[in-house]
Target: Golgi SNAP receptor complex member 1
Amino acid sequence: DLRKQARQLENELDLKLVSFSKLCTSYSSTRDGRRDRYSSDTTPLLNGSSQDRMFETMAVEIEQLLGKLTGINDKMAEYTNSAGVPSLNAALMHTLQRHRDILQDYTHEFHKTKANFLAIRERENLLGSVRKDIESYKSGSGVNNRRTELFLKEHEHLRNSDRLIEETISIAMATKENMTSQRGVLKSIQSKMNTLANRFPAVNSLIQRINLRKRRDSLILGGVIGVCTILLLLYAFH
Model:
């Protein structure tokens, strides 16, 4: 009787676990399809609350079946250890160990599937909140597009003005450098002329004497010409 009950519970658990795994797979695929429709913005989002409720219901049912199967295994272990049953009956021990292994496998599969389902749901909830934030940001940024565009244009104008000012300053600095270099050249020429003048004073004195002699000769020549002219006039009138 205990073996029959154990097999019946194991069959029910097997069917429940298969359905539970399909529910997890369909939940993931539904979320993927929802993401595609969300990106296309042509179909409204599906509500996953029904799948969540189905998940909770199936999880509770499977846990109850696992509890019942655990109780049956405990009863079989008590029967094996009870008086009147041969302690070295290999068939009974093998049967009990087999049912325990099946229970352990079903328990492990249930917890694994449940963990995967919860991880998928948590990830999708997180992605959903991120999508909502992105949509709210897009909807809010649409109002400020004009203002942002004006700010960008004003920023570009300021950059152009800065560039023109920098070019003007560069031209002024280059002009200043050129004038400074020309001033240095003129100073060097003047210093060289002064050096030559100081180095050759005799030339200056000779030039001055030549000029004085030329001036004296001009005066003498003018006086002679004047005297000759007066004498010619006196001779002509007498």
User: Anything to note?
Assistant: Residues 33-47 have pLDDT under 50 and may be disordered. Residues 1-31+46-140 form a domain with the Methane Monooxygenase Hydroxylase; Chain G, domain 1 fold (CATH 1.20.58). The radius of gyration is 59 Å. DSSP finds five helices and no strands in the chain.
